[in-house]
Amino acid sequence: MQMNQTGAGALSGCKVVDLSRVLGGPYCTQILGDHGADVIKIEPPAGDETRGWGPPFLDGTASYFLGVNRNKYGLSLDLSLPQGQAFLRTLLKDADVLVENFKPGTLEKWGLDSKSLADEFPRLVHCRISGFGADGPLGGLPGYDACAQALCGLMSVNGNADGAPTRVGLPVVDMVTGLNAALAILLAINERNRSGKGQFLDITLFDCAISLLHPHAANYFLSGDIPQRTGNAHPNIAPYDSFPTRDGEIFLAVGNNRQFELLGKVLEAPWLARDERFASNADRLKNRQILRALLTDLLKGHVAADLAQTLLETGVPAAPVLNAGELLNHPHTHHRGMVIEEGSYRAIASPIKLSRTPATLRRLPPAFGQHNEEFGAV
């Protein structure tokens, strides 16, 4: 990400009012802000709770908040009060987008329901992020990432075959919900260019979690079999798993016969591709345990990173299994500009690379209520 640039940005001139907290909404609006939108983050009097989700802290603010709230103005406002609601309406007069993740019914009781907003601000794109939506058997109930992982089948297919269902080790549902919300906003803005009208976007953790169930849902629809946990192994491909080496784990992602043949050559075991037990992917799946034992023996003398580099250069997908520190200090991470450093602020940069209008860092994550005076917030 380019640093301290004031270039146009792909979303320059787009005004976003962000009432969201925690992760899904803030992640969405940071994407918009990185690409030039003017994002006005409004926090309740108690603040976004993730400000306290630490340690670690920087100047009293938790890293969790800092990671998803750059490129935003920071205001504090009590929307339960009439004057707070009135100030919000002044911001919405020329806003393009409203993002919020209140529990369904909250804005309604303040007279800020989607219909009223549409009537008063017909060009406004109103994006609501919620757990389950407003209606249906679970409508109106609060949603949380880990609970969505449990309810929507993600935990059931994550973990070792002989172990318990396991939460994915990052808030994948919240983050993919934020991504889908950003995508929905861009779709709605594009449609507004034709119709002149905004619309209401109903984005839920429940729906987004279900959308992640590939290929497990596809397998279930076709076979009727309940997907099972397979550890690091793939349910449809072999060898597609992590294996021990002399100094750590390597992940092999061999997706076709040509790659399997090349793997055998690199490992000085060309006979693997000639073994009828491994002639096709279906054969390799059927005999995956035998294949795993053979590969484990062939890999035990290799250095993971060196072998992965050789395999990649040969055309075989492979990677050493790195920890977060190793990855964030990897030379290619820095070559791709994926770490931002500005004073004491360090963060992951935008992965969205545009040639003429790149993402920029224009504002560090705001202190609580930092821009109240500038905006005349009550």
From TrEMBL:
- Give the source's domain of life in one word: Bacteria
Recorded hits in Pfam families, A to Z, give: CoA_transf_3 (PF02515)
- What are the protein's GO molecular function terms? CoA-transferase activity
Per UniProt, the keywords (alphabetical) are: Transferase
State the PANTHER family in the record: SUCCINATE--HYDROXYMETHYLGLUTARATE COA-TRANSFERASE (PTHR48207:SF3)
Q: In its UniProt entry, what is this protein called?
A: Crotonobetainyl-CoA:carnitine CoA-transferase CaiB-like acyl-CoA transferase
**Which lineage ranks, top first, belong to the organism behind this chain?**
Bacteria, Pseudomonadati, Pseudomonadota, Betaproteobacteria, Burkholderiales
